[in-house]
Amino acid sequence: MNLKEENISPLNIGLVIPVFNEVESIDIFLEKISSIFANQPHITVELIFINDGSTDSTLEKLISRQIHNKNIKIIDLSRNFGKEAALSAGLQFSKNDVAIPIDVDLQDPPELILEMIAKWREGYEVVLGRRINRDVDSWAKRRSASFFYRIHNKISNLQIPENVGDFRLMDRKVVEALKELPESHRFMKGLFAWVGFRTAYVDYVRPERAAGTTKFNGWKLWNFALEGITSFSTDPLRIWTYVGFFISSLSFIWAIFIAIRVIIDGVDMPGYASLMVAVTFLGGLQLIGIGVIGEYLGRTYIESKRRPVYLIRHTYDKKADQWI
Ligand code: UDP
Ligand code: MG
């Protein structure tokens, strides 16, 4: 098959779109998508919206848009499970040739999808959208993101590419591989990286949100970073052996030093300050160590319950009565 024929072979793409209180963004998003794909008759675009427990009229909006667009599918989750779980739900239902997780706020520019498809046709199985400029993010968010990637990639066997979000094209094979991963704590960036496959990049500048406000605050991001690190590295657990060993060796040398000083100079009473420092310092260190163990133990506990990642209230699909 020559390239020209390949370019016009029919293709079914699935956009996986988690939405949480996004009623203002949906129309803008849908207009944009239809304008991009209007002159691409060989591409069918299925829009898989996952309503992640919105408390505004997001669901009603989606249902009203579905009346005129049979390619819209809606998965209504029973509550807010978070973006990671919503993405898992959407991918679970994607039966398309390629699946593309994308934000509804147009911060992942849909124009890029055509470039991604071109790369996929070249034979890549994963095409990552890479931000070359994060000026729209706050200074603190940029700094903390870069710090996270540095730490994560240093202590984990798995390298997560920097400046890459969830926006990516994935071949059906990759989606099937993701579905095989059983964990209920789903740090998608890590899981995406873990499955591997032949990967290409398309670069873009991340624009401002088209409407509405960000759904992530500092505390959510911090927990997200902890999730990322504890999901793919056990170094934070193991480091305490070495810290403990190092500190006890120092204490041992210190003890010998004191013993010799007592033999030479006799007993001296002062020492309250250094004693307090040692006690509080070691106390703090132990608490940190216990805290780190707690992070992992907590995750093992949650994982061992084998609860589902999300619960679905209802799925809306005009083409089929029920999804398989
Ligand atoms: N989102 C979600 N559940 C959440 C938080 C966010 O489904 O608990 C969705 C949100 O509706 C949007 C996408 O995830 O489509 C990205 O969220 P946002 O734009 O707020 O994140 P930011 O771009 O600020 O990182
Ligand atoms: Mg956004």
How would you portray this structure in words?
- The protein is built from eleven helices and eight strands.
- It is elongated.
- The protein has two domains: 11-217 and 307-317, Spore Coat Polysaccharide Biosynthesis Protein SpsA, Chain A (Alpha-Beta Complex), CATH 3.90.550; 235-305.
- Strands 7-5-6-4-1-2-3-8 form an eight-stranded mixed beta sheet, sandwiched between helices.
- The chain is of the alpha/beta class.
- The model is unreliable at 1-5 (pLDDT under 50).
- It has helices at 3-8, 23-37, 58-66, 83-93, 112-122, 139-155, 172-180, 188-195, 218-232, 235-265, 272-305, and strands at residues 11-19, 43-51, 72-77, 98-101, 126-133, 164-171, 199-205, 312-317.
- The structure holds uridine-5'-diphosphate and magnesium ion.
Topology:
Elements: H1 3-8, E1 11-19, H2 23-37, E2 43-51, H3 58-66, E3 72-77, H4 83-93, E4 98-101, H5 112-122, E5 126-133, H6 139-155, E6 164-171, H7 172-180, H8 188-195, E7 199-205, H9 218-232, H10 235-265, H11 272-305, E8 312-317
Parallel strand pairs: 1-2, 1-4, 2-3, 5-7
Antiparallel strand pairs: 3-8, 4-6, 5-6
Helix pairs in contact: 2-3, 6-9
Residues 103, 105, 107, 209, 214 line the site of magnesium ion.
